[in-house]
Design goal:
- Helices cover 49% and strands 19% of the residues.
- Helix 4 crosses helix 6 and helix 5 packs antiparallel against helix 6.
């Protein structure tokens, strides 16, 4: 299990999208045709709210078995490979800044067709389309930060119920 890290919240930064695009290029150069899409998800993908300055990226691949075989290449990019990390059908990787040691990227890799891809995209798109919910999410994030700023695991757990409720609402809105 990845160790918890202190939580830092930053105002939204438009440059996060550029950083995701750059990371997508690195992944594409390494994974080639195995990589089908790269999605920017999580708080850094929602304009106007505070976020941990850690990019959540969902690479979609043809095959998890093929991705598993490419683990050394992913690790050569500087990623730490955590396997499923509690979610069946996912490959989770983290990238830390070599100079500061701070977490920069979370990769949530899924095979094409995985339901989790739609769940991540629905949550992101729903909050972007409903700024009042994005503002509520920011309030939840700030409350959880005040209570759990020393542990990213506890911070994430604190937000969990709210996220699950809004995810379900977002998926229901899709029909």
């Amino acid at each position: 299990m990845a160790p918890p890290v202190p939580v830092e919240l930053k105002p939204h930064d438009r440059l996060w999208a550029n950083a995701v695009a750059a990371e997508a290029e690195r992944l594409a150069a390494t994974l080639g045709e195995e990589l089908l899409a790269v999605h920017h998800v999580g708080s850094t993908a929602i304009p106007g709210i505070v976020a941990k300055p850690t990019l959540d990226i969902v690479p979609v691949v043809r095959s998890l078995d093929a991705l598993d075989a490419m683990r050394p290449e992913v690790e050569a990019l500087g990623y730490r490979w955590w396997g499923e990390y509690g979610l069946v059908g996912r490959r989770f990787c983290t990238l830390d800044d070599p100079e500061t040691g701070k977490r920069r990227v979370h990769l949530h890799c899924y095979q094409l067709g995985a339901a989790a891809i739609g769940r991540h995209l629905a949550f992101r798109d729903y909050l972007v389309a409903h700024p009042e919910l994005a503002a509520q999410y920011e309030a939840v994030k700030r409350r959880c930060f005040e209570q759990h700023h020393k542990s990213s695991h506890d911070y994430s757990s604190c937000k969990g119920d709210w996220i699950q409720r809004i995810e379900a609402e977002a998926l229901a809105a899709l029909g």
